[in-house]
Structures are given as C-alpha cells and as structure tokens.
Amino acid sequence: MSADTCRRTIGGFSRGDSVGANPWQYMQPFPAPSRNLRRRAMDHLPLTAKLAGASMEGGAGGRVVDTYKKTLATAASVAAYAMLARGMARELLPEELRAAVRWVAASVRARLGAGGKDRHTIVIRRHFDGGYSENQLFEAARTYLATKIDPRAMRRLCLARSRHKEPDGSSSWSTLLCMEDGGSTTDSFEGVEFKWTSVETSGDDGGGKKGKSHGSSHRAPRETLELSFDAQHTDAALERYVPFIMSAAEQLQRRDRALKIFMNEGRAWHGINHHHPATFDTLAMDPALKTAVVDDLDRFLKRKEYYQRIGKAWKRGYLLYGPPGTGKSSLVAAMANYLRFNLYDLDLSEVRLNSTLQRLLIGMPNKSILVIEDIDCCFDAKSREDSKMPMPADAGNSSDDDGPPSKACQAPQQQQNLTLSGLLNFIDGLWSTSGEERIIVFTTNYKDRLDPALLRPGRMDMHVYMGHCGWEAFRTLARNYHLVDDHALFPEIQGLLAAVEVTPAEASEMLLRSEDADIALRVLTDFLQDKRRRTRKEASEINIDTAEKAMWVSPSPLIGPCLSEETKY
Ligand SMILES: Nc1ncnc2c1ncn2[C@@H]1O[C@H](COP(=O)(O)OP(=O)(O)OP(=O)(O)O)[C@@H](O)[C@H]1O
To answer: Is the distance from the beta carbon of residue 221 to the nearest atom of ligand 1 less than 6 Å?
Structure first.
C-alpha cells in the first residue's frame, strides 16, 4: 500500500501530518468512520489513544502526537540512563554513599506520596544518646510492623533475631521479618492511613553506634523508621496510634517469649522455663464452664479503665476446687499459656512471717499469676486467728531474712507469724496499692474446709468447680490423645461415664495405654465397666449394711419392742 493510497483511504490529513501515528492506518480496510462516531468512541479511549486520535482531527492534533512521541522517546532514554547509572553506582559508589542516595530518594518518595497534602513525619531512631541507648519505641514498632509485612509482596526483606528483656532480668529471643532500607508499608488505624518507611544512613557522621566488629573505626548504619501521615491526624498518631503500637508489640513479645514458673526460696523468687502444654483446647472440662472462664479472662484484660473508674484494684481471683486429678493445675497452666503471664507458685510452708510474704508479693511483676495450691492445708485453725506473736528467736537468722531488712524487720516486736488473715489482708492491700493486671488462683480439693474469710463475696471473683469426667470432657481427651471424634465404642463409654465417677486424670491414663485408638478405647471401656461393677458391689454392701443397722435400730412397732426387750437383758 502506497502512502498516497493510504492518505486517500483515511482522508482528512494534510501534507506533513504523521501518517504513521494514525491508529486507523493499517487496521482500516473499510471506509473511515464518521467524525461523530469517532468523537463518541474517543470518549471511551485512554489518554494515549485520544492523543493519537487527535492527530486525525487536523494540524494541531498532529503536533500533539509529535509531542507525545518525543515525550515517550525522552522517557525511554531517561529510563535507560537511570538503569545504566544505577548499575554503575552499584559498581563504583561506596555503600555509605549509596545509602545516603537511597535515604534522599525515600524522603522524596515520601513527600511525593503525600499527593500535595501537608504531611507530617515522625522519625523513630533505633539509638539515641549518641548511639548508646536503645529506643524502645523502635523495637516496638519493628515488632509490630513484622505482623504487617507480607513477605510475598516485598521483593527485599530483612530477617532479624531480636532480644527482649524480661521483667525478671532474663532475656528471650524472637525472629522478626523487617523492612529493608527504603522499604515501606502502610497501616490503617481508626480509618487513618499511616505510612512506615525504613531508612538507613551511614553512622559515620558520629550519630551511630560504633561498630563492634573487628574493632575498626567503621560505624554501624543509623537505622530509623519514619512514620508519615496527613497533618490533620497528628493527634491520633501521637495520642492513640503510638500507644497502640507499644501495647500491641508488648502483647506480641509476650506471645513469643518462653513462659516461666517461679518458686519462692526465702524472700526471693527463682524461675525456670515453663513448658506446660495445657491449653484451653486440650483441657477436658464442661464446655460452658470453659467458655465462661475464657470470657472472664478476656473481660478482665480489657477492663483497665473500668477498674480505675470504679476504684478497684485491677486484679482477679479464682478459686478452683474439685477432687484430685480433675485438672485444677492444668487449668492454671492453660490460663498462663492463654494470657502469656508467668506463674508464681507460692509455697506457704516456706514462709514463716507475714513480712516475708509481703516482700515476695511485692517482688512479683505485673501481668503475672500467683498460685497457692491446696490452700485448705496451708493454715491450721490456730494460725487463722490474727495472732500477734513475738518473732521467733531464730527468725532473724532464718532463710527468710536474706536481702536488705524490710520495715517490718526493723521493728521485731511487731513481726507476725504468717496467718490467713495476714495473707488475705495483704493481698487485698497489695493489689490495691502496687502492681496491676494480676491474677491470683487458690486451689483446693475440699472447698468445705476453707475458712469463710476466703469465700467471702468479693475475695475470690470466680469459683470454678473441676468435676469428674463427663461426656464432653471425654471427647476432648479422645481428640487430644487419638485424634478421634467418633468411634463404635463411644455410645457405650457415654453410658458408662453417666454411671460411674472417673477423673480426667484416670481417663487420660487409660487412653495413654496404647497408641492404637481401638485398643486404648477398649482399655478405657474395660476400666469403666470394672469400676461400675465395683461401685455397684460397694453400693449393695452399703445397702445391706444400712439395712442391717436399720433392723437393729428401727423404730418399727413390729420389731422395736423386741429389740428393746433383747437389749434390756
Ligand atoms: N481436665 C483435664 N483435662 C485434661 N487433662 C487432665 C484434666 N484433669 C487431669 N488431667 C490429666 O491429669 C494430670 C493431673 O491433673 P492435674 O494435676 O491438673 O489435676 P489436679 O486437679 O490439679 O490434681 P490435684 O488436686 O491432685 O493437684 C494432668 O497432667 C493431665 O494429664
């Protein structure tokens, strides 16, 4: 096809117009569409097509197309140069300079991203004080952002192992996904969009911490996280978003840390790692009761302001009672795992003085669970009285007295032996004065033996009865141990559980006898049948015994006088 033919076919082009830019040029074997038709079609075309289409309208349109082509060519050249420059920079420029360039680019990007709106930026440096102090907010933000990063969406990511200091001075470690230098992500909070950018600059300006490796003068890069947002949201950022991040990070760190259980020795706590596997999922108990406990814990955690408002200490007390082997200790472990709180297992037989107890309780950090097991065995009737007794002669040398002397130790005549009322008064006093977000759990096998002071309303907020293994509890155990939800023996087991009392500990033991679910369930069924036989036998013996006794003491007019007569002689 010649240029002339082409011009003819399309029509309306003046000499010098760019034929090649005409979109209809080679695709148009039919007569050209009318102007109106083309104008209507143009309304639906993207900008590039419109520009090109404009060239069909006359000389002015042609110039637009020329400009468009030139712009495209220029953009392509710039992109090529940029790629070339980038490659050369990577080869030739030192890392420090490249980091500085990246920082400038990130700042420019951040400003351009603002879309012309007034943007504010909060810079959170990893170190301050000339590089010698760690900024906790940086660590918190990094921990929080690790949950926001989608590793599939980011081409470059950094993996870091982070150390957290525990309240007891020990450390725990966790692995985090972090943004690389120049990386950014957005987070939405209360409907506001916050943008986070990771920026690294060379530490050679003296602001960074001196690199410890190889003892060289090289300084570690200065790491910062930049939080940018629309200026109108400054209050939301500082007053709500930043505190939210701190608390979210704390929760995440708690989730990752190894739990500990502390035991009292003298006046101090000694902790070891706590790996009790019990969770609310594995706990075999009445489902409604389980839900009630979990809901109660959740409500407690959310109610800081509420407790403040009503003027009550932010603490919660649980009394767990029931026969041995019904899961009281397991429930305590499940609570600790659920809340990620450390456990403080208080052995009161090791505590002789109220002042020692006071010191131990004050030494417990927030977000912890105090457990006193078998509370019914801890105090005899005598010690329940609030007796003010002189301090034993050897008490000053006892293991209770390590560490600096407390106020109470300076006034020996006021020393009190440990009493239940001392414990209760002090717990109430302690919770209301120091520390918060604590849980106290008492356990007992015999609720009826407890001092009424312990059962007084308001002392223990929730009384939880851990009973014998019911049908639902058994199903949890079957699922835990053998991953079975249904089995041919289930109906028989259900009937047996309704007839005999067996603890979850006993049922667990039977289920553990074999790894084969069929065998283990058979073993349990036999155990339950045997137990039912024995229970029936015992019951019938008791019935006979009772009947015999009844015969001897019965006031029945028929035999009564006879007995009386017999006993007379
Ligand atoms: N409700 C339960 N759910 C799951 N496992 C249980 C339950 N109760 C008991 N077990 C099993 O029995 C073992 C002993 O239970 P646990 O020590 O929790 O009972 P306890 O009521 O605290 O007993 P004690 O009163 O003697 O201290 C647990 O380690 C667990 O394997």
So the answer is: no
